[in-house]
Amino acid sequence: MSVPITDPRDRLIVALDLPSVGAAESLVAQLGDAVTFYKIGYELGFAGGLGLARELIADGRKVFIDFKLHDIGNTVARGIASLAALGASFATVHAYPQTLRAAVEGRGDSALRLLAVTVLTSYDEADLRAAGYGAGVEETVARRVVQAREAGIDGIVCAPTDATRVRTLLGPDRAIVTPGVRPEGAATGDQKRVATPFAAIRAGADHLVVGRPIVAAPDPAAAARAVQAEIAAALAAS
Ligand code: C5P
């Protein structure tokens, strides 16, 4: 079910969190062959980034569309079918049962792999209560991982610090993708539950999403290669 990882570079997904296609194109050019997999979220996606996604895919790169979809089933299924037609490798949806089932229907037998977001990492117990939920974060994450698995989703996005627990619930065959990755000594920014690339892979992550430690580095390609070296060291130690 998970994406077969034939190229070890594919384990690193660089978040193109940039305001314009021009800025993203220049970063992609700087990164060159060091990076094979890019994530496009709201900021770049709503600034023309889907056209860039098409170009990256035509150029042999993989693209993760991180729009975290959640709507009525028909709309989700059709949106996901469009992302499959675009040639995206990963797309995110919120882990609500109707949304999960609709996304799986929209994906059909395409190569697109669906990732479920269980509880946003910026939410704590008080935020869930304020949103009207009775269960806490841990219980809600666990329930949604199981529901995502049962719906036929291909993987989960979670904090590296949750990866071990998620792996137990998810089983060995689906992907775990973790943001919140910070090489030793890097600024954490607004990320609260962070881990190094080495620790995230050791906790069971298949792919790491890294934004600012690479995007804002003085030498982004060197920063990307350093993360990949840490990933390789963690896999070798497994
Ligand atoms: O710059 P940084 O490495 O923190 O970027 C992490 C990326 O992963 C951002 O694009 C962010 O939107 C995304 N993300 C996250 N936490 C989640 C889900 C996605 O940081 N739970």
TrEMBL record:
Catalytic residues, chain numbering: 66 (for ompdecase activity), 68 (for ompdecase activity), 68 (proton donor), 71 (for ompdecase activity)
Keyword line: Decarboxylase, Lyase, Pyrimidine biosynthesis
Gene3D superfamilies: Aldolase class I (3.20.20.70)
Quaternary state and interactors: Homodimer.
Function: Catalyzes the decarboxylation of orotidine 5'-monophosphate (OMP) to uridine 5'-monophosphate (UMP).
Reaction(s) catalysed (UniProt annotation): orotidine 5'-phosphate + H(+) = UMP + CO2
Top-level taxon in the UniProt lineage: Bacteria
Gene of this entry: pyrF
Stated name of the protein: Orotidine 5'-phosphate decarboxylase
EC number: 4.1.1.23
Record pathway: Pyrimidine metabolism; UMP biosynthesis via de novo pathway; UMP from orotate: step 2/2
Listed GO MF terms: orotidine-5'-phosphate decarboxylase activity
Organism: Ancylobacter tetraedralis
Domain Orotidine 5'-phosphate decarboxylase span(s) in chain numbering: 11-227
Family membership noted in the UniProt record: Belongs to the OMP decarboxylase family. Type 1 subfamily.
Residues that hold substrate according to the record: 17, 39, 66-75, 121, 182, 191, 211-212
Pfam families for the chain: OMPdecase
GO CC terms: cytosol
GO terms for biological process, alphabetical: 'de novo' pyrimidine nucleobase biosynthetic process; 'de novo' UMP biosynthetic process
